[in-house]
């Protein structure tokens, strides 16, 4: 009688970042003995994953010292597109595979950008608050018109980061009659056919600026005090990239001083942010719009993420390379 190969142990260190009880985890679980943990601190990684061949992580950090304490580890499946939480050189050195999931959140993030564009242009928050605070009820007119707003048609959208998401946002914007400009990012070399303008020109001309670039050493604080000085005081800035792509203190100062009209973001430098963050200042109440890092997290998006991770793990177990970073 042939012995049945032992199924690999699969540990999900922070499953609560993906599973809200509304998605099917079978695509992952069917690949082995599945052990999900809702959350794990850095100190708990070794205890929980010490005997696992496959570890899934969203935000848990795999720094070099962790690797030598996980002798059975063969695959790190990152439950995200970015893999900056894994020491890739150490993984290569130890011949540990690393996979990610590109593109799973393109639809929902690009729709979120459109949400921000419409909310800012039509001053949705101010108008909602005018109704719930009783200001409309006290109006001598049938409409409450204290917050003049503008159409998107005819406005210029500058996109910093023209990848899959940036291109989809550009398509939405054009459907609304906007003109789209794409910027050259520092440290990048572009093909001649790519019509990208100098960053300064895009920032100077745009009525709305939407950030969709990866966080790298060249894009960290891409929106800083110097670059904010190039932006029109009537312009609105949208961040759906990463928090550190902008200098948040500089943005807060620009808003306070009237050098920037509004800032909408789904991401912050520190997450969750401190309660005394400068962007939470009462004086900025009608100039900022926040969502709590959920632009990626529609139910459909999270199911796509799980489906793709399941396929990545299955491919690895079959000796195939799929979405391999290492």
Which regions are unreliable across 5 or more consecutive residues at pLDDT < 50?
none
Output mean pLDDT: 95
What is the third-level CATH name, the topology of the largest domain? Rossmann fold
Q: Widest sheet: strand order? A: 7-6-8-9-10-11
What is the 3D shape? globular
Largest sheet: 6 strands, parallel
The H-and-E topology, N to C, reads as: EHEHEHEHEHHEHEHEHEHEEH
Number of β-strand runs:
11
Strand content: 5-15%
CATH architecture of the largest domain: 3-Layer(aba) Sandwich
**Rounded Rg:** 23 Å
CATH superfamily name of the largest domain? NAD(P)-binding Rossmann-like Domain
Gap from first CA to last CA: 37 Å
Determine and state the CATH class of the largest domain: Alpha Beta
User: Percentage of helical residues?
Assistant: 25-40%
Number of separate helices: 11
Count of folded domains? 2
Show the helix and strand layout.
Elements: E1 9-12, H1 26-29, E2 33-36, H2 45-49, E3 54-57, H3 64-67, E4 75-78, H4 88-93, E5 97-99, H5 106-121, H6 124-132, E6 156-160, H7 164-175, E7 179-182, H8 199-205, E8 208-211, H9 225-228, E9 236-239, H10 248-256, E10 262-265, E11 288-290, H11 299-317
């Amino acid at each position: 009688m042939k012995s049945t190969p032992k199924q690999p142990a699969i540990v999900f260190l922070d499953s609560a970042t993906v599973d809200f009880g509304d998605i099917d985890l079978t695509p992952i679980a069917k690949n082995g003995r599945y052990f999900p943990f809702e959350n794990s601190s850095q100190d708990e990684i070794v205890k929980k994953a010490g005997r696992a061949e496959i570890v899934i992580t969203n935000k848990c950090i795999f720094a070099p010292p962790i690797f030598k304490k996980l002798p059975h580890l063969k695959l790190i499946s990152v439950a995200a597109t970015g893999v900056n939480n894994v020491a890739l050189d150490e993984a290569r050195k130890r011949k540990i595979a690393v996979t990610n999931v590109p593109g799973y959140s393109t639809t929902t993030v690009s729709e979120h950008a459109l949400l921000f564009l419409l909310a800012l242009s039509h001053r949705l928050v101010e108008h909602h608050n005018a109704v719930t605070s009783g200001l409309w009820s006290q109006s001598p007119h049938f409409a409450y018109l204290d917050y003049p707003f503008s159409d998107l048609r005819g406005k210029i959208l500058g996109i910093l980061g023209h990848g899959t998401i940036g291109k989809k946002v550009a398509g939405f914007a054009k459907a609304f009659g906007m003109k789209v400009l794409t910027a050259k990012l520092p440290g990048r070399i572009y093909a001649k056919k790519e019509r990208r303008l100098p960053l300064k020109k895009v920032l100077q001309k745009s009525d709305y600026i939407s950030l969709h670039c990866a966080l790298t050493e060249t894009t960290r604080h891409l929106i800083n005090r110097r670059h904010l000085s190039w932006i029109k005081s009537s312009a609105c800035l949208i961040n759906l990239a990463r928090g550190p792509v902008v200098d948040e203190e500089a943005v807060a100062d620009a808003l306070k001083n009237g050098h920037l009209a509004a800032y909408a973001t789904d991401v912050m430098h520190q997450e969750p942010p401190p309660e005394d963050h400068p962007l939470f200042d009462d004086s900025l109440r009608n100039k900022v719009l926040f969502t709590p890092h959920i632009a990626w997290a529609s139910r459909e998006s999270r199911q796509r993420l799980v489906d793709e991770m399941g396929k990545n793990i299955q491919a690895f177990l079959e000796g195939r390379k799929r979405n391999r970073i290492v």
